[in-house]
Write a structure and sequence with these properties.
5-stranded parallel sheet, 39% helix, hydrolase activity, 255 residues, NCAIR mutase-related protein, 11 helices, P2CMN_synthase_LarB
């Protein structure tokens, strides 16, 4: 149950549209569902303001489907599935209940079951900037995460330090200076986060990616650069963790 639904239930009791016993019964529903192989958190939306998300990697296609259907059955409007393989997405499409809407983006490996994203309904502004085109899969994971949580997302892709004038042109700077929070995503040496952090007056969430040649050590070089940023107001999430950045940005944007 989400906060809005709780308020509606209490209002219904107040107006006499629902009796106290029925309301208590609904509130007593277990805060998680024990499925044997998983225990999806059905009260997370009420407790934290953002509903349960499925990390698809490492789960079987059947498990992804069963967990998603259970969450929808318990009243969750939309279910975000991250790191979802094409195989799992195909299985989901072929075996889901007919009434469940489902979309899949193979580029960022994001699946969405249930109510779909309407970017026009987003609030505030989260700007996502990438160093290069190769960072876009991580950026889209962040963007879709933020959007499904009700945020407006503006994308500035391929504005890295190898051509810094792309970041400094008027349109990009206008977006940066009017953002509530910025997600800076880069591989290689990860310098974009420091540059953006030195320009913006809002929190910057840095996401190192595993993009780069051998000495980038699968994103470790970018991670260490971002952790050692001299720009104030820069925080760092794990390598390729677009989901974590999008979630954190949503929490900041909605305060």
């Amino acid at each position: 149950m989400e906060e809005k639904e709780l308020l509606e239930l209490l209002e219904a009791v107040k107006k006499g549209e629902t009796n106290v016993q029925d309301a208590v019964l609904k509130l007593r529903q277990a805060p998680f569902e024990d499925m044997g192989f998983a225990r999806p958190d059905t009260h997370r939306g009420l407790r934290q303001g953002a509903a349960e998300v499925i990390f698809g990697q490492g789960k079987t296609p059947e498990q992804n489907l069963m967990i998603a259907e259970k969450l929808l059955e318990k009243g969750q409007k939309s279910v975000l599935i991250t790191r979802m393989s094409q195989e799992a997405a195909n299985y989901f499409t072929d075996n889901k209940k007919k009434e469940i809407e489902f979309t899949y983006d193979s580029y960022c490996k994001i699946g969405i079951a249930g109510e779909q994203i309407d970017p026009e309904k987003g609030v505030g502004k989260i700007v996502i900037a990438t160093g290069g085109t190769s960072d876009i899969p991580v950026a889209e994971e962040a963007g879709k995460t933020a959007e499904i949580m009700g945020n407006k997302v503006v994308r500035l892709y391929d504005v890295g330090v190898a051509g810094i004038h792309r970041l400094l042109e008027k349109h990009a700077m206008d977006e940066i200076m009017s953002a509530n929070v910025i997600i800076a995503i880069a591989g290689m040496e990860g310098a974009l986060a420091s540059v953006v952090g030195g320009l913006a007056d809002c929190p910057v969430i840095a996401v190192p990616t595993s993009v780069g040649y051998g000495a980038s050590f699968g994103g470790l070089s970018a991670l260490l650069s971002m952790l050692n940023s001299c720009a104030s107001g820069v925080s760092v999430v794990n390598i390729d963790n677009g989901f974590g950045a999008g979630y954190l940005a949503s929490m900041i944007n909605k305060k």
